Amino acid sequence: MAEKVTIATVARHARVSRQTVSNVLNAPHIVREETRQRVQEAIAALGYRASQAARQMRTGRSRLIAVRIEPTRDGINGSVLDRFLHGLTETAEAAGYRTMLYTASDTAREIAAYDDLLSAYDLDGFVLTGTHHGDPRTAWLAERGVAFVTFGRPWDDPEAHPWVDVDGAAGTGRATGHLLARGHRRIGFLGWPAGSGVGDDRRAGWREALRAAGIDPTGLDRETEDGIAEGERSMRDLLATDAPPTAVVCASDSLALGALQAVRAADPPVAVVGFDDTPVAAAVGLTSVSQPLGDAAARCVDLLTAVLDGDQQTPAPVLLQPSLVLRHTA
């Protein structure tokens, strides 16, 4: 029978102390990168599996975090959260955590899910997505001393809690700048109704880029709920104006796909840019703003680990930069 692989076995293989192996398993951030990598290589080579029960007894943690699966919508923008969840699960596992998924159709049901989950499981913390103004979820968790981080800013108070976000204004600003460089001057915007933190941020990037170029954005944007049909309807409305846009930036790929349908027969052609760089955007050749979702997921795990390790100061927020993926439509 093969000898059981223990922490001592890993320590001998990696030429480190047993305490260093334990630190790599339970508090990897305090171990030098070179040493951590050597220990992780030894763990992989030997096939070591830590006892979850023993680890929980030592650390007082379940090594279990929870994150919500968004309800399915049009199958396009939902893929954005799917990519984030994959990145979160993989990064959490590398840090010694398991991810529990749950679903809820609205905020009230999500808070009810917190109550149920915390009663049934010994969760270490939550990663929240889709933050908005007056978000009651963060207040509920904070009042009960439950550890959490958010993928999305606390729009009412940037210092309220640890968060990771992508700079949406920079993304739409970059898209607008690209269209300006291509010679466009009447650049429209299709976005969500005012009051959405994410939507307002993306609209602001477009607006400020136009103003910086000396262009008045008045009358060039439309507000609508998200969706392909809504994007097509809003784009047709813009095209029917006395001075229709020659290009449009959209707050999502769903709106952009609708806009593409509306401009199909436009002469001269109208450039279209989406947001989120979904697989559908790649398939149809849609230029789109891409979010670094893998990096965002990894940083969420880093921040949550810091909170769980008892950092005295609130970890600094992380604002990541998106990129513009150029394809046929702009």
From TrEMBL:
Alphabetical UniProt keywords: DNA-binding, Transcription, Transcription regulation
Residue ranges occupied by any HTH lacI-type domain in the UniProt entry: 5-59
Domain of life: Bacteria
Entry-linked Pfam families: LacI, Peripla_BP_3
SUPFAM superfamilies to which the protein is assigned, alphabetical: lambda repressor-like DNA-binding domains, Periplasmic binding protein-like I
Claim: Aminoacyl-tRNA synthetase is one of the keywords in the record: no
UniProt-listed Gene3D superfamilies: 3.40.50.2300, lambda repressor-like DNA-binding domains
Entry annotated with the keyword Transcription regulation: yes
PANTHER family reported in the protein's UniProt record: HTH-TYPE TRANSCRIPTIONAL REGULATOR GALS (PTHR30146:SF109), LACI-RELATED TRANSCRIPTIONAL REPRESSOR (PTHR30146)
Entry protein name: LacI family transcriptional regulator
Species assigned in the record: Micromonospora globbae
